[in-house]
Amino acid sequence: MNDLPKFDVFLAHNTQDKPQVRFVASALKQRRLKVWLDEEQIIPGKIFQLEIQKAINNVKSAVIFIGQAGLGRWQYIELQSLYSQFVQAENVKTIIPVLLPRVNEIPKDLLFLAQHHWVSFTNGIDDVEALYQLEWGITGRKPEQKSNQKQVIETDVLQSNDLSSAKGINYKKLHDFLAEGKWKQADQETTSVMLQVANRQKEGWLDVGNIKIFPSIDLRTIDTLWLKFSKEHFGFSVQKRIWQEVNRDYAKFGKQIGWHKLDWVFYFSITYSLDAPPGHLPCSYCYILSQVGAYKYTEIIPVTREVGQVGKFAKDDPGVVCLFARQDL
Questions:
Q1: pLDDT at residue 146 in the model
Q2: pLDDT tens across 53-75, in order?
Q3: Which residues partner with 98 through β-bridges?
Q4: Residue 282: which of 186, 158, 204 has the closest Cα?
Q5: Are 277 and 258 in contact (CB under 8 A)?
Q6: Within the chain, how many helices (H) and strands (E) appear?
Q7: What strands, in cross-sheet order, belong to the sheet with 119-120?
Q8: What local confidence, expressed as pLDDT, does residue 180 receive?
Q9: How many C-beta atoms surround the C-beta of residue 212 within 10 A?
């Protein structure tokens, strides 16, 4: 172990909370903190557990993110090692529990974390006050300024990460629709840019192969934009979490997010507002995720997709399942 820890903070989190953790990591790096985040530090082929242990030996503090799904499997392992370092007063000097949006208290099975002063993002993942408190906890020094930081978060993080594309796609239109709360237009634009990314505008649909190789950068960009402007109410990763919560049962999933009532709902029945259930949007992309789309959809779906049923074919093919199986959501 080096005499001085290389990183200011280790981010322990559940994979299901990855989009929110990435946002916080970006905000901390803007504040010139050295952040250890697994996907940025672990080289492919390395043994995950060994790399985690090396990292824990080389950080000054640790953040334990607690999302709606609770701690992940690796988080429990990380927590044991972090507490060992903390109790022995070695390099880890501070452990900070962080409650992600829609988590109002530390779960009962983690009450031992309640002895630490936690930070809550109840008001959204871009909560300036929460980020201020988190920086203070990590560095042990009160940050000099809180004013105008929200604008920095909303512009710099978005410009550097959320609009990135491996294919040179311009996401400004999607960004603007979402920023203005134009959910229907944003839903349609999501479908359009996904086809552009895959160079499948002519075919008008994606098969499982296209979905598997869909660039991670673009998938994260689209998802992050939906998460940010809906305050984690809409987005692929929200849908994936719900899909996992219902044990990957597509019919139950459809009912929970409002796509299925007595049958799969038609597009004119979609609720394009934040009054819709969590995960309700985006939805029109379901029509392009199908192996049978090439000949099925042209029979019943006009260009506007207005009369089609959400999930009509997606429930019978692996397209949506393949998307939700992506580890980068």
A1: 53
A2: 888 888 888 899 998 888 877 77
A3: 65, 119
A4: 186
A5: yes
A6: 14, 5
A7: 35-36, 7-12, 59-66, 94-99, 119-120
A8: 94
A9: 12
Distance CA 16, CA 329 (A): 7
Strands of the chain (E only): list them: 7-12, 35-36, 59-66, 94-99, 119-120
With a threshold of 0.70, does the pTM exceed it? no
Provide the β-strand partners of residue 59. 7
**For range 300-306, the mean pLDDT:** 32
| Cα 116 to Cα 96: distance, rounded to the nearest angstrom | 7
The DSSP string of 261-315 is SSSBPBGGG---STTSPTT--S-GGGGGB-SSHHHHHHHH--TT--SSBTTTTGG
The sign of the CA dihedral 16, 290, 277, 259 is negative
Question: What gap in Å lies between CA 172 and CA 204, rounded to an integer?
Answer: 22
Token code pair at residue 184: 């229907």
